[in-house]
Design goal:
Largest sheet: 8 strands, mixed
Structural class: alpha+beta
Number of strands: 23
Low-confidence stretches: 401-415
Radius of gyration: 34 Å
Mean pLDDT: 83
Strand content: 15-25%
Number of helices: 25
């Protein structure tokens, strides 16, 4: 009953001072809301179970070549068969690969992303269809594989959600496929872009050992109950040891490249590089909350000081000191709980902001929202915060001498030395934390500016890209593909405003990065080395012109380069690595296959291009082969324009339709958009840390102002005496500014020291900037010093304007 009374009295006390209560609640709402928003993201990504039964048992399995700089590669069909058969830690496993198909006969042509998967995919994920069934082993054989399972969104959009769709045919790439099932709403694998699942039918040749190294697919497995990822890894390593003995001709390559299979938790595979920036932001918002607590504690201290006489009277009338402390803590908890509720609204807006700046995951597998877990987190944080900022004023109240306070009579209540020291320490902490956040955001800002000014090796401005999906039934033969290419490029170049147009198998920053080993005629690898390994691109001559990649030697591809005239273009990295003292023009590179050797004569050297990440220096070479040498099922168009690139998007669609009306154009984007998307996980932490640093700076300035203003009010009589004895306005200004300057100096020193110690946490997000960058440190000192000085100047000016007579009367 006493506890209820304490909270009821707390509400009454706070209602009497709405301005004070509003300031405290707003401050706490910012701190608790920011923490809850970031926690929501961490909860959805890392804590919530995946939307599959016992999702924690799922692991991603892939090949790796660490000594070649290829950490994550696909899986070949023989690798998959080995691991499915011999890894006892796996309860089930599946293999899948992506392919684009064109849906016709359902309105305008649509390009759909299809997943070709083994029938075991659904048993591995332990999911069942909403309608019909999934495909079986018989349907995963060549000639019987023209069946599909629809995603729920495609079923709704293309077929109106009709249950009669089961058993009907649809046209994919000009072939009839039987619809046998529909997956339930909410089912996603591997991401929401996949709208169809079809059987992955292995040919006899694909299952043979000659296919090892053709790693165009992915693998997922489910661990047996009780099995661990470490056990699976040990068994994968054992399989490789056996294969080293079975295939001695490949063993040296595997050893030199560090080849092996890897098994990692599937969640870790999906999260990718989001973990580091999220932890960084969670630490930042925790510091913001600490500043908020310090500010609120200062406000509560000022309020307790103003209530000293009231509290002393209550003590004199029999209220125990712990009863007073309990009352103050109750008031703090009431404020913190209200601040926590308001913080949930801030968290909701915060989640919207996180999504807007691109920090949220692109995969809809993750459920990120303000759920019960986040509500419990916010409530727990609010209670903990209330206790933290409530203890300081409560301890101050314990230190008061009741008799001394009552002797003061009607004179103003003044705080003791202990309270003054406490308030000063809280301000120092605020300045220190603000300095830490400013250093972090300053480093990220400078890093991001350097990153944006980094050249990718081509000119991204004025460049439009678009994707196509070419069915094998029409364009599988090289002649048909070349004819399509020539007609389309001719029409694209005729569009007004187009400067150059080209085609490639994959554009920079598009997401794919095909790589392959190759040979150089006359070059022998040294001991412990393998054949050269590089990024491979299939392009036409227009690609280099459209991208404005500089030609350093020789020429780029011409229409005569192809199967009859096999030519190659290499980048500067390859030329410097393997032809440091000679002209590479005329040398031959290729694939020294005993049964089918392919050699390409180098006709040109071009500048090095960053293919996937602006922040990484290029360490792996790129070699280009002519587009007329092999058909491409999913080419990308690159078009340079003299007008805004997106303004010609409709004309590009018309050009494609004029060549083949059944081909949809997809992923129409500017190259700058693609680069910006690749920088999202760097841009988002920078922007958010800037926001948090600004909040911290504001709260710190308010804290400095509050402490100095309160100090001036307590020293009104002293200042009046000084001025009556001849002190000038400048003397009083200096006196008060010195007091503020000491707090700022100590806070800055502590903050910069802590920032230097903790800067390793932000180093993974930096590019071209040292975590001890002197210009950032100096800028923080100057900027924070100026803001703090301005916050000190206002109370100092008020002190200097004190009327000595009035001040002495006050005393």
């Amino acid at each position: 009953m006493n506890l209820f009374t304490d909270f009821a009295n707390g509400f009454k006390q706070l209602a009497k001072r709405p301005g004070f209560s509003f300031a405290v609640v707003l401050t706490l709402a910012l701190g608790i809301g920011a923490n809850s928003a970031i926690f929501s993201m961490i909860n959805g990504l890392m804590l919530k179970p995946l939307p599959y039964p016992h999702g924690e048992q799922l692991v991603a399995v892939f090949n790796t070549y660490p000594k070649m700089g290829l950490i994550h590669a696909g899986v070949s069909i023989p690798d998959y068969l080995d691991r499915r058969r011999d890894v006892d830690a796996f309860q089930d496993s599946a293999m899948y690969t992506w392919k684009g198909v064109n849906l016709t006969g359902q309105g305008n042509p649509q390009r759909l992303l299809t997943l070709a998967a083994t029938p075991s995919l659904f048993s591995t994920l332990q999911v069942k269809p909403l309608l019909g069934r999934v495909f079986n082993e018989q349907e995963a054989t060549v000639g019987n594989d023209q069946v599909v399972v629809l995603s729920y969104p495609l079923w709704q959009s293309a077929f109106g959600g009709s249950r009669d769709v089961i058993g009907t045919d649809i046209q994919l790439d000009g072939k009839a496929y039987r619809i046998i099932g529909v997956m339930p709403g909410g089912f996603v694998f591997p991401n929401q872009d996949v709208q169809l699942w079809a059987p992955f039918a292995f040919t006899q040749a694909q299952m043979g050992d000659d296919e090892r190294g053709r790693e165009f697919s992915s693998m997922i497995a489910r661990l047996r109950p009780g099995a661990t990822t470490q056990q699976a890894q040990q068994q994968l390593d054992r399989i490789q040891e056996i294969n080293n003995q079975r295939f001695p001709e490949a063993a040296e390559f595997w050893k030199n490249s560090g080849f092996g299979g890897r098994a990692v938790n599937y969640r870790e595979e999906l999260i990718g590089n989001l973990r580091a920036p999220l932890y960084l932001l969670q630490a930042a918002v925790a510091f913001v909350l600490l500043i908020a607590c310090a500010n609120v504690a200062n406000l509560m201290l000022a309020r307790v000081t103003a209530r000293r006489r009231e509290l002393s009277v209550r003590t004199a009338m029999g209220a125990g000191r712990w009863r007073i402390v309990r009352q103050l803590l109750a008031e703090s908890l009431v404020l913190s709980v209200v601040g926590g509720v308001a913080g949930l609204l801030v968290a909701w807006f915060g989640l919207e902001l996180l999504t807007a700046v691109g920090l949220g995951p692109s995969n809809e597998l993750f459920d990120i929202q303000l759920d019960v877990t986040v509500l419990a987190f916010a409530l727990g944080l609010a209670v903990a915060t209330g206790l933290v900022f409530g203890v300081v004023p409560a301890l101050a109240a314990l230190r008061d001498n009741t008799a001394e306070v009552l002797k003061e009579g009607g004179r103003s209540a003044s705080a003791g030395r202990g309270t003054h020291v406490t308030r000063s320490a809280l301000v120092i902490a605020q300045v220190a934390i603000a300095a830490m956040l400013l250093v972090g955001s300053g480093l990220l800002i400078k890093s991001f500016m350097k990153l944006q000014s980094t050249s990718p090796g081509f000119n991204p401005k004025g460049l439009l890209t678009a994707g196509l999906s070419l069915p094998d039934s029409k364009y599988g033969e090289l002649d048909a593909f070349v004819s399509f290419h020539d007609r389309l490029v001719e029409r694209l170049q005729a569009i007004p405003g187009v400067v150059a147009a080209g085609m490639t198998n994959v554009a920079p920053f598009e997401g794919g990065n095909p790589q392959a080993s190759y040979d150089i005629e006359g070059y022998e690898s040294g001991p412990g080395e393998n054949s050269p390994h590089g990024m491979i691109r299939q392009v036409d001559g227009g690609y280099f012109k459209a991208m404005q990649i500089p030609v350093l030697e020789g020429r780029v591809f011409e229409p005569t380069d192809g199967t009859d005239n096999p030519a190659a273009v290499i980048d500067e990295t390859l030329a410097e690595r393997y032809f440091p003292d000679e002209n590479p023009i005329g040398r031959r590179i290729g694939f020294d296959d005993e049964e089918n050797p392919q050699w390409f004569r180098v006709v040109g050297v071009v500048g090095t291009v960053k293919q996937t990440d602006l922040s990484r220096d290029v360490t792996k070479e790129t070699y280009y082969l002519p587009i007329r040498g092999r058909s491409i099922s999913g080419p990308t168009l690159v078009i340079r324009t003299a007008v805004p690139p997106m303004s010609i998007a409709d004309q590009v669609r018309e050009a494609v339709s004029s060549v083949d009306p059944e081909l949809p154009l997809t992923h129409v984007r500017t190259m700058q958009e693609m680069i910006d998307m690749s920088l999202q996980t760097r841009r988002a932490p920078m922007l958010l840390l800037m926001v948090f640093a600004a909040v911290a700076l504001t709260l710190s300035a308010v804290g400095i102002y509050g402490v100095l203003a309160y100090s001036v009010s307590q020293r009104t009589g002293e200042l009046g005496v000084r001025m009556a004895l001849g002190a000038q306005l400048r003397d009083v200004l200096v006196l008060v500014m010195k007091q503020g300057g000491r707090l700022i100096a100590v806070g800055l020193a502590a903050g910069l020291g802590a920032a230097l110690l903790l800067s390793s946490f932000v180093s993974s997000q930096l590019y071209g900037v040292s975590r001890f960058d002197p210009t950032v440190l100096v800028a923080v000192i100057v900027f924070l010093g100026l803001v703090a000085a301005l916050a000190s100047l206002i109370p100092a000016w008020r002190a200097a304007r004190v009327n000595p007579v009035e001040a002495l009367k006050y005393e």
